[in-house]
Structures are given as structure tokens and as C-alpha cells.
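Hey,

Quick one before I head out. I ran the complex with flavin-adenine dinucleotide overnight. Inputs first:
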Amino acid sequence: MTALKLFLLIAAGILLQIAVAAGMAFYRHWQVYQEMKNRLAGFNGEMPQEAIPLQNMVAGNENHQDAAWTGLREFRVEKKEYEDAAGSICSFYLVPTDGQPLPSFLPGQFLTFSFNLRGESQGEHKTTLRCYSLSDRPGLPYYRVSIKRMPPPGIVSNLFHDHIHEGLQLQVKAPSGHFFLNENQAPLVLVAGGIGITPMLSMINTRLATHTDQEIWLFYGVRNGNELIMREHLQTLAARHPHFHLHLCFSQPLPMSDQAGISSTRDMWISPSCA
Ligand SMILES: Cc1cc2nc3c(=O)[nH]c(=O)nc-3n(C[C@H](O)[C@H](O)[C@H](O)COP(=O)(O)OP(=O)(O)OC[C@H]3O[C@@H](n4cnc5c(N)ncnc54)[C@H](O)[C@@H]3O)c2cc1C
């Protein structure tokens, strides 16, 4: 065998390996895409009506028991609003369709949403539940949740972003959860990463609405300024309340805008290195 033939043989072998690997990768992605498409095809805006036993009626606070509801309650999406420069986090403002008062909740608690989605096999439908923290304070005429789009095939977060529009109705369980802010008025130190900030937004908004002289420190980590949720809101709070200290940590700061130091707004400190 000549050197040229040997070279061609090796090159052909390498090309074959690359083609097989690319084919396998494409097939895997195609399968994931099909699965997600099939599941979302089962969503037609109708939600299951069956009652789900109440698990946690505004957990940890007996005084709130009158205010919660059992099973599922219908809410309408009043407003949909993007919250970050990257457009990956969207807030949904919800009001009950029965016109009855909105029960209070404890800052830090979450809502559970129920969807009736197509299952694995033909004709099968299954109830899919997802929890989302209430991201604003109690006592407002709406509930708000802020949802990050997960990479496909993240089923429900993509459903929210792509198919849940203003005016659509959703089935929702009452606020619940044991991670909440109590009435204790000690200084507050909060550490949040990415979308994990949502319950803390509720805590901060609640505290600043009632105890403006209380020390609150928020250490908030994201990759860069594009991923900051509610940047303007946080900056406004930091500028308005001298006791609210906002520290941002960027693991992959943008060269122009995410530089360390005090930002243009007073009291918003971008830490030099949090990576
Ligand atoms: C108490 C609580 C509060 C929460 N609050 C919030 C909140 O405020 N905001 C918020 O955005 N989220 C919140 N979450 C998370 C939220 O409930 C969901 O878990 C999240 O939105 C993902 O759901 P999904 O249906 O989009 O993804 P799922 O379909 O459940 O998938 C989860 C992840 O796995 C990956 N995955 C799934 N299947 C595959 C596969 N076959 N191959 C490879 N990867 C796969 C998806 O890409 C995704 O990243 C909260 C969760 C809890 C428990």
C-alpha cells in the first residue's frame, strides 16, 4: 500500500467517525425536540378541574388559614412582563377570575400551577405540577410569579414563555411553603443566585414597604448584567432606601458595563470578584 493510499484510508476513517458522531448528536436533539413538541401539543388552555387536597394552607401561620383556598382556583394572566435584558425571565401578574378577595401570603411562599399535558403514550394526558415563588409582596391586588425559561425540553417554563399570554386562565393552588420571612425585625442578610432571587424579592419588597429603617443586605450573583432580574427596581430601592445595601456579583462580567465599584446609582456595589 502506498503512502497516499494509507493517508486516504486514515482520512476516510476520521471522516466516518465525525459523521457518525454528528448523526448521533442530531438524533438525540431531534428526540428531545419531538418529546417536547408532543407534550406541548396536549396543551389547549384547558386545565383539570379535579380538586387537589390542600397540603399547606399558608404554612406556619394559623392566622392566614381563612384566607387560603382548597384545591385549584382559576386565575387570569393580567399582565406579562420581561424582567431581564436577556429576555429569559418573565413575570406573570395573576388575578382570580371569581372576583373574590386575594388571600394574603407570607413573603417567600410559592404558588403551585397545574397543567393538563399530553403524556408519553397516545391519548394519555397527565397532570403536571410546577411551583413558582411569589415575587412581589402580599397586600397587592395581584399575585406575581417570575419564571426563567429553562433550556428545552424544560416543559412548563417554556410553556409559560411561549403559550401563556395575557387573558389566559390558569389553575393554581394556594400559596404555601415554609421558607418565609417572619415578623422578626432583625437585620436581614439575603444571598441569592440567578432566578433563586424570586422569594427574596418578595421579602425585600415587604420589608421596605413596612420597615424602611431596617438594615437589609442583598448579595446577588448572576453571570453578568444581562441576567440581572428587575435591575431598575433593585436600583431604585437601593437609591431610595439608605438601609438597603445591594451587592452584585458577576462571574462573567461584560467588559463595558459590569465593572467593579459603585455603579451610577448610589449604593449598588458591583463586587470585584465573585467567580
Ligand atoms: C418552591 C419552588 C419555587 C420555585 N420558584 C421558581 C421561580 O420563582 N422561578 C422559576 O423560574 N423557577 C422556580 N422554580 C423551579 C420551577 O418549579 C421549575 O422546576 C422550572 O421552571 C423547570 O420546570 P420545567 O417544566 O420548565 O422543566 P422540566 O421539564 O421539569 O425540566 C427541568 C430541567 O431538566 C432539563 N431536562 C428535562 N428533561 C431532559 C432530558 N430528557 N434531557 C436533558 N435535559 C432535560 C430541562 O432542560 C430543565 O432544565 C421553583 C421550584 C420550587 C420547588
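The radius of gyration is 24 Å.

Talk tomorrow,
K.
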